[in-house]
Amino acid sequence: MSISGESTARERLVVVGGDAAGMSAASRARRLKGPDELEIIAFERGHFSSYSACGIPYWVGGDVTDRDALIARSPEEHRERGIDLRMRTEVTDLDVRGGRVRARDLGTGAESWTPYDKLVIATGARPVRPPLPGIDAPGVHGVQTLDDGLALLDTLGRTPGGRAVVIGAGYIGVEMAEALINRGYGVTVLNRGPEPMSTLDPDMGRLVHVAMEGLGITMVNGAEVTKILTGGDGRVRAVATQDEEYAADVVVLGIGVRPETSLAEAAGLPLGEHGGLLTDLAMRVRGHDNVWAGGDCVEVLDLVSGRERHIPLGTHANKHGQVIGSNVGGDYATFPGVVGTAVSKVCDLEIARTGLREKDAHRAGLRFESVTVEATGRAGYYPGADPMTVKMLAERRTGRLLGVQIVGREDAAKRVDIAAVALTACMTVERMTALDLGYAPPFSPVWDPILVAARKAVSAVRSGG
Amino acid sequence: MSISGESTARERLVVVGGDAAGMSAASRARRLKGPDELEIIAFERGHFSSYSACGIPYWVGGDVTDRDALIARSPEEHRERGIDLRMRTEVTDLDVRGGRVRARDLGTGAESWTPYDKLVIATGARPVRPPLPGIDAPGVHGVQTLDDGLALLDTLGRTPGGRAVVIGAGYIGVEMAEALINRGYGVTVLNRGPEPMSTLDPDMGRLVHVAMEGLGITMVNGAEVTKILTGGDGRVRAVATQDEEYAADVVVLGIGVRPETSLAEAAGLPLGEHGGLLTDLAMRVRGHDNVWAGGDCVEVLDLVSGRERHIPLGTHANKHGQVIGSNVGGDYATFPGVVGTAVSKVCDLEIARTGLREKDAHRAGLRFESVTVEATGRAGYYPGADPMTVKMLAERRTGRLLGVQIVGREDAAKRVDIAAVALTACMTVERMTALDLGYAPPFSPVWDPILVAARKAVSAVRSGG
C-alpha cells in the first residue's frame, strides 16, 4: 500500500492477449492493486475482448441469438475498471531481457515499444489449418473467433438448408455438427481417426458415432481430406477425401488448435513438447520471475499421468487468469494442474471424460483394469430413466482410479465431476463404492452409475493379476 | 468351498426384514455361496419385498403409473434365486444367545422358532405417528409402505381436486406436497419448525418456502398440530393447530421415521442415541460376531462430525446389504460412513445438502466460516441458465470443507456430489477452487457454482479469525 502523499514507484503490468486468461489476470490484479500502485496495459489484436469461444457453436446453431451475449466484458467495461485495453493492437515482439514489448496499431500501422515491470502472456491458440488446396475458398470457415462466427452465419444465410461438411470429429466438430443440424443443414462429418471423439477410447467413441448417425448426421471415419473443391463462383462446392467427394455449400474446420507461442518462442521462453509455454505452480514462466503465462498458450500438468498436456478450455484459462492476477497483485495462488475433464453434447447425447484413456494409461506405463457398465441416471421406474454407458479404468493391484468416460442422454455428462474429484483425491475404486452421493428417484437410482462402475472395477481389480 | 461328495455342515443365514438392506444382503451372500453351503431364510411381515419406499411420492403423484415398477424384485424372483423368503411372517422374538428367532405366520397365526448360524437384522424404520386425537381417522395417511400408497390413492380417488394437508416439511413432506399438487389438490403444509427442510439451515429453507408458495402451496411455519377433526362420516375434515383450522379431504403424515429396533432392544443389542443399532465397519452388530444389521434400523458414522446419525435412505440400505452379504458370504467389505448427502425436489425446485449445517458444526465444536453465492448452472448466455443458491461452510484457519447446501432449478441438486466427494477426501476449499470440473456452455459456466462458492469461502477463511 502506498501512503498518501508519498511518492511511490508505480509498477506497470503489460498483458498480451485480451481474452479469458489475460483479462481475468488483469481484472484480478486490478482488484488487488489500485491504479496508483499498478498501471495495467493490455493489447488485443482482435475486435473483441473476454468472449466465450466455447459458445460459438451455440450461437451458430441458434440456441444463443445474440452475439454480444458471448462477450463477458467489453473493452469499455475493462477501461472503466482502470485497465488500459488497446484493441486491434498486435504485439509483434517480446523483449524479455529488455523488459518491453513492441506493438502495432492495426488501424494506423504505427509501432512502438512499451516497457513493463511484469508481463502476462495470454496469446491463446490458433486453429490448425492444413495446407489443403482450396482451404482459403469462400465458404470454408474456422470457428475460433466471433468474426469467424459472423462469417459462417453469413455463408449459412446464402444457402439455407444446404449441405455442410465438418472436417474433424473432436469437441468442435461434434458441436458444430449439432449447430448445423439445428440450422437445417444436411451434415457430413469427416474424421481421420477410427471413431469420433478421439478424447475417448474408440469403444466409447463408437457409441457417439452410432448416436450421431441416429440424429441424421453422416459420419465418415478414416477420412483423409485431400482437397477442397470450388465451383465457378470460386466458392466451395465439395470436399474430397482419398476415397470420395462430398458436396458442400459450407465447410467447417474443427481440426483443433495449437498454442499460439511464436512470439514466446522467438523470445527464447521455454516451450513443452506440445508447443505450449511451461510455467510453475504459480503460472510463472519457468526461469522468468516477472513473466506469467496462462490460457490456451500454456501446457498444464496432468495430475494423473504426471505429464504435461495442452488443454485449450475456457475454464482453465479463467483459473489461470485468476491465479496470475492474484500473484501479480501480491497475493499468492497456485494452479496445481488438471485431471483432464471435458464434457460436450451432440443434440441430446451427452459425452464426458476425465483422467486417462487406455492409451494414456499404456503410455504412462500403468497396468490397469478397464470395465464398462450400462446404468440409468434416475431410478428405473422414474420417467426419463435413460441408460448411460460408463467406462472406468483402475490401476491393477492398488485399485487407484485412473479415468472415467461417459456417453448417454440427460444427466449423464456432469456425473463425470464425481470422478474428477475422486481422481484429484487419488481415491481407489473401492473407496468410491462407498461414496455418499445424492440419491432420490428423480436424480439417481440407489446405485448411481458411477457407483455401479466402481463396483465392477473393484471386482476386476480383485480378480486381476 | 465344499469338495463334491464330502459331507459339509451347511450354514443357515436368517434375515429379518425383506426390503432393501435385508434382501441385498441375502442376494449378495447367495452369489458368493450356493445353496449347498448356505441356506438362506428371510422373514418379511408385509406384502411386498425389495420395494422402493422413496418412489411412493412419485407413484402417488402420477409420475410413476405402475405400482409394480417400485418393486425391484418380487418374492418369487428371490425364491428362484434360492432364498427362502417367507412373506407375511413377522419375527416376534430374537434369541441371540440361543441363536434362533421366533416368527409368526400372519395368515395362520402359527408361531415357531428358527435357529440360525448367522443373523441379519434389517427391520427398517417406523413412521412417527404422534398421539393426536383423530390420527387414526380414515383419510389420514402415512406413506411408508406400498399398502400406505394404495390407501392414499383410494382416498384421493374419492375427493378429486380437494384439499390436502401435509403434516411435516422434510423430504417426505415436500415430495408429497408435489405429488398432491400434481393430483390437482390444494395443498397446505404444516411445519413445526421455522422454515421447511430442517435438514438445511433456515436461510436456505427460506428459499424452499418462497419457491413452494410460488408453486401455489400454502406453507405454514411454526405450526403445532393439536388434533385432527372428523366429519359426520368419521372421515377427516380438518387439521387444527394452536392457531387455526385447515380444512382437509386428505391428510398426509410426513413427520419422519425412527429406527424399528424394538426386537433388537428386547434382545439386548446395542442401540445408539437415535435408537438405531450400532455396528462396526463391516456392519456387524457391536459385540456380536454372527449378527449383522443394516438399513433404516442402524445408525451410521458421520465422517465429517465423527458422530453417529440415523439416516433412513435407500441408497445406504443397499450399500449396507451389499457389505453385509459380502461379509456373510466370506468376502470382506466395509461401510466407512456417510457425509450426509441428500437431494430432493418440489416440482422444478431442486434441493440438496451434504456435510454439516451451521448447527451441526456448532454442536461438533467447530469454528467455521459460512458463505452463500448465487450462480448459474450453465453459461449465462445459454438457454435455461437459471441461478442457484449455494451455501458453503468451511472450517476456520484450516479451510477444510464442512458442508454444502444448494437450492435451485434444473441441474442444481446433483452438483452436491462434487462436495460429497470433496468432504470424503477431507479437501480444503482452497483445493476445491482448482477442481477440474466439466465445463461446456450447456453444462456449466466457466466457474461452476461450486467453484464460485469455494472461491468465496477461501476469501472468508483467509480474512477470518
Keywords, separated by commas or semicolons:
alpha/beta; five-stranded parallel β-sheet; FAD/NAD(P)-binding domain; flavoprotein (chains A, B); disordered N terminus; 25% helix; 26% strand; FAD/NAD-binding_dom (chains A, B); Enolase-like, domain 1; 465 residues; homodimer
Q: What can you see in these coordinates?
A:
Chains A, B: Residues 344-446 form the Pyridine nucleotide-disulphide oxidoreductase dimerisation domain. Chains A, B: Pfam families: Pyr_redox_2, Pyr_redox_dim. Chains A, B: Residues 12-310 form the FAD/NAD(P)-binding domain. Chains A, B: Its cofactor is FAD. The structure is a homodimer of 465-residue chains. The termini of chain A are far apart. The first copy, chain A, is α/β, with parallel strands linked by helices. In chain A, helix 1 packs parallel to helix 8. Chain A folds into three domains: 11-126 and 258-328, FAD/NAD(P)-binding domain, CATH 3.50.50.60; 140-255, FAD/NAD(P)-binding domain; 351-463, 2-Layer Sandwich (Enolase-like, domain 1). Chain A is 25% helix and 26% strand. At the A-B interface, helix 8, strand 21 and helix 10 of A face helix 8, strand 21 and helix 10 of B.
Which outline of chain A best applies? globular
Distance between the termini of chain A: 61 Å
Largest interface: A-B, 67 and 67 residues
Q: Determine the mean pLDDT of chain A.
A: 96
Largest sheet properties of chain A: 5 strands, parallel
Instruction: Work out the helix count of chain A.
Output: 12
